[in-house]
Write the structure tokens for this entry.
Amino acid sequence: MAQQKRADYISWDEYFMGVALLSAKRSKDPNTQVGACIVNNKNKIVGAGYNGLPIGCSDDDFPWEKQGDFLNTKYPFVCHAELNAILNNIGMDLKGCKIYTALFPCNECTKAIIQSGITEVIFLSDKYAHSDAALASKHMLNTAGVRYRKVAAGIAQLVLSYKEEDI
């Protein structure tokens, strides 16, 4: 009898959200690590990013605080994962692409998402759903006709192993 294909492989949503979550592991932020992955209509990854400081700004020379005087917090300095994914794209027009992001995008990233031509946002967490930033994001996405949805994952976690015997 012929061997059957595996039945427990991950879906496209699980795969691309996994890439977003793996990208988040590059973030130096001690409190929040967010990753994003942009995919074209052929299911090819065309951009990825995570929240961090701009190129040329040392992670050791800027604050990581969440509260305090504005210039003593991370907020004026950190570039969010979605914007980084857009800026780090492979040099193509992003019109019609999807973006997978660990956290529902803020209003500033939403502006960049809409302007870049991305037509769908797939997110894992919307923990700030009732914040002004999230409400503004949803209003802009709805008005611009950009779809958004929570990722449809049939798995609770995905474990990566660097052990050769696991390959």
In short: The chain has a mean pLDDT of 96. Residues 48 and 77 are 19 Å apart (CA to CA).
